[in-house]
Specification:
This protein is an alpha/beta fold. It contains eleven helices and five strands.
Length: 257
């Protein structure tokens, strides 16, 4: 069939089924096509290619620190992050993950920058591709006993220890953790700068959010499924009406007075 006789719908199907290099060739081939619909299609395809290139560059930049450590001789580099330091209720959760070298999962980023559905989708992909991952949670009672900073450190250290694959370097978001028994590299804002840490942040966030949804059913009335235990106006109002429950952090300011 003469390509010039193809309908715009048929061209859309060809673009949808073609790889990026083939799409580039199609853009060159049809750049002089007089049909406005074809030009709109080419413009959209070129935009999508540019977006993929930008995303690939972002992911490559996120892997730069891991690659430097691999070049220095480390073999199994673990990313570690925690979530849940700020809530009034529920555990603090940490995840540790070792991703394969040069692994690319489109969209991986700081979990706070992703919506719920995207986080869940990525968490599943991360689990499927990870060489190893582990999650640890520290209860509100332990948080009350040792303080939230120490509980967060403990959660991260336990997550690393639970990995089925021994790692030789931990990349951690924020500051160094004195409880790690392995060499570590602390990276401020690591969940947006380091691929493995970003993967860990997504796993921890999805796990904790799902857990708070379950706890909402066990302790109704507090709205845990909405605010995940964080200090919102609605949460404080529920606390004043119902008082704290078993999963509240008594050492935190619950504003009961």
């Amino acid at each position: 069939m003469d390509d010039k006789l193809l309908s715009i719908k048929e061209l859309k199907n060809i673009f949808a089924q073609s790889d990026e290099e083939s799409q580039r060739q199609l853009i060159k081939q049809y750049k002089n096509d007089p049909r406005a619909g074809v030009q709109a299609l080419l413009k959209q395809a070129a935009k999508q290619i540019a977006q993929r290139e930008q995303e690939l560059l972002r992911l490559k930049e996120m892997q730069q620190l891991e690659n430097e450590l691999l070049a220095a001789g480390y073999q199994y580099i673990c990313g570690c992050d925690e979530v849940g330091r700020g809530p009034l209720a529920g555990p603090v959760v940490a995840a540790a993950v070792i991703m394969p070298k040069d692994c690319l999962i489109w969209g991986v980023n700081d979990s706070k920058k992703l919506n719920v559905s995207k986080r869940k989708q990525l968490a599943q992909e991360i689990k499927e591709q990870a060489l190893a991952y582990a999650i640890s949670e520290i209860s509100p009672r332990i948080i009350d006993a040792v303080n939230i900073l120490q509980a967060s450190r403990l959660a991260m250290a336990e997550a690393v220890k639970k990995l089925g694959l021994p790692c030789d370097m931990v990349m951690v978001d924020g500051w160094e953790n004195p409880l790690f028994e392995l060499p570590q590299k602390a990276i401020v804002k690591g969940d947006s700068r380091c691929f493995n840490i970003a993967c860990a942040s997504i796993l921890a966030k999805v796990y904790r959010d799902d857990l708070m949804d379950e706890l909402d059913e066990k302790y109704p009335g507090y709205g845990f499924s909405q605010h995940k235990g964080y200090p919102t106006k609605e949460h404080y109002e529920a606390l004043k009406a119902l008082g704290p429950c078993e999963i509240h952090r008594i050492s935190f300011d619950l504003k009961l007075q």
